[in-house]
Amino acid sequence: MRTPMHDSNSEFSQTVDQLADDPNPYDPELGSLPQNDLSRADLENVNKTGTTTIGITTADGVVIATDMRASLGGRFVSNKNVQKVEQIHPTAALTLVGSVGGAQSFISSLRAEVNLYEARRGENMSINALANLAGNFARGGPFFAIHPILGGVDEEGSHVFSIDPAGGVMEDDYTVTGSGMQLAYGHLEQSYEEGLSNEEAMTIAARGIKSAVERDTGSGNGVFLCEITEEGVDIHGHNDFDEVL
């Protein structure tokens, strides 16, 4: 019998050779991950919030406060009226901390997941589940340099979580993140006590933000206050601290 001859340049021969080198030809082909080619100069031109953000649990719910400044590399004020706290759940909100683009994408992704959960199950996601989801997103997603605060109210009570850039999730009675955190923490350590009303907590949080903006160049230009109760989320901004103190 005549032995079939194969042209070494034929498509068939090339395919045979490729399969011989691949022990699992039926496995899915995986693409390469995008490379982060940002230089130090690029990072200095990223819009960052700098920021001081505060979250406090109260007898009525949760109060979140943030400053209103965005900067380029912490040296130039690029925007004086940034809303750094957004509602992402019927009774929860998240602060915008770190690079503006990464934080905005993070908030949009969480909000979409919350809406899908409600549509599929006919009930709101618990705040603890939302915090774990946020931690998973921070740990595994492409969100650049974020350190938000998540605050919310559910059937189990009032919750404030700090979500660190590596995905760590830590719950506390109150927490502070951002470039002015040391300044704000000093005020909260002296002023916080259990059983605060939302009104009392808003005054304490606003004073904490004011303490930070006095010395931290990444924070400034006013305060946004977010009040969360079982009824919903109310966010309002103030360019003048005298309006809330």
Helix-strand blueprint:
Elements: H1 11-21, H2 40-44, E1 47-48, E2 52-57, E3 62-66, E4 70-72, E5 76-79, E6 85-89, E7 92-95, H3 100-121, H4 127-140, E8 149-154, E9 157-163, E10 169-171, E11 174-178, H5 181-191, H6 198-215, E12 223-229, E13 232-238
Antiparallel strand pairs: 1-4, 2-3, 2-11, 3-12, 4-5, 6-7, 7-8, 8-9, 9-10, 12-13
Helix pairs in contact: 5-6
Structural description of this entry:
The protein is an alpha+beta fold and 245 residues long. The protein has one domain (45-243): Glutamine Phosphoribosylpyrophosphate, subunit 1, domain 1 (4-Layer Sandwich), CATH 3.60.20.10. Helix content is 33%, strand content 26%. α5 packs antiparallel against α6. The protein is globular, with a radius of gyration of 24 Å. The mean pLDDT is 85.
Any idea of the CATH class? Answer: Alpha Beta
Give the CATH H-level superfamily.
Answer: Aminohydrolase, N-terminal nucleophile (Ntn) domain
What sequence of helices (H) and strands (E) makes up the elements?
HHEEEEEEEHHEEEEHHEE
Spatial order of strands in the largest sheet: 11-2-3-12-13
Which descriptor suits the 3D outline?
Answer: globular
Structural class: alpha+beta
CATH topology: Glutamine Phosphoribosylpyrophosphate, subunit 1, domain 1
**β-sheet strand percentage:** 25-35%
In total, the number of strands is: 13
What is the mean predicted local confidence, pLDDT? 85
> Residue share in helices?
25-40%
In angstroms, what is the radius of gyration?
24 Å
Question: Terminal Cα separation, in Å?
Answer: 99 Å
